[in-house]
Design brief:
Layout lengths: L3 H12 L8 E4 L7 E5 L2 E5 L14 H24 L3 E12 L5 E11 L3 H11 L3 H8 L3 E2 L12 E2 L4
Antiparallel strand pairs: 1-2, 2-3, 4-5, 6-7
Helix pairs in contact: 2-3, 2-4
Length: about 160
């Protein structure tokens, strides 16, 4: 059962025509950076590397973002190939988060398709990879809309993509 703030957020999302696909709760109570995460019924954790003051006990938030992108890519391609009956034996997704000059950043992704696929099948799968749900969320800059009370517990905050 969620908190009143979560329920209010769900009500607003439903009223605005959105359908909630998944929810996660992140809790940090210790003096260090480790965060316990609950994604649906699955426990996860995040931390920062020792080089920035963390204990390096779990993936960093950027590591989790890359994991989400890579797993969504692999799952989507397996689903698509499976529906088509294509001989895709596996998918390997290599990802890197890169920071550049002036605060620029990018994610590079290389996809290895394993199996005896034809060139047209490979091309189609790489095209599908450009439209996975997480790829679109990252590329399109999904707004983060908070549900809570200003200035206190559950403080409201809205984050939108930079233009």
């Amino acid at each position: 059962m969620g908190t009143p703030g979560e329920a209010a957020g769900a009500d607003r999302a439903t009223q605005a025509g959105y359908t909630r696909k998944t929810a996660a709760i992140a809790t940090s109570t210790a003096a260090d950076y480790r965060v316990e995460i609950r994604a649906g019924r699955h426990p996860l954790a995040a931390d920062e590397p020792k080089s920035v003051g963390g204990a390096d006990t779990a993936p960093s938030p950027i590591g989790l973002l890359l994991s989400a992108l890579g797993s969504c890519t692999a799952i989507t391609l397996r689903m698509y190939a499976g529906r088509k009956g294509w001989p895709l034996e596996g998918v390997r997704v290599h990802l890197a988060y890169e920071e550049g000059p002036g605060g620029a950043h990018r994610i590079t992704r290389r996809i290895d398709l394993l199996g005896t696929l034809g060139e047209a099948q490979r091309a189609r799968l790489l095209d599908i990879a450009e439209r996975t749900p997480v790829t679109r969320a990252v590329r399109e800059g999904t707004p983060v809309v908070a549900a809570g009370r200003p200035g206190g517990h559950g403080a409201a905050q809205t984050l939108t993509p930079k233009s």
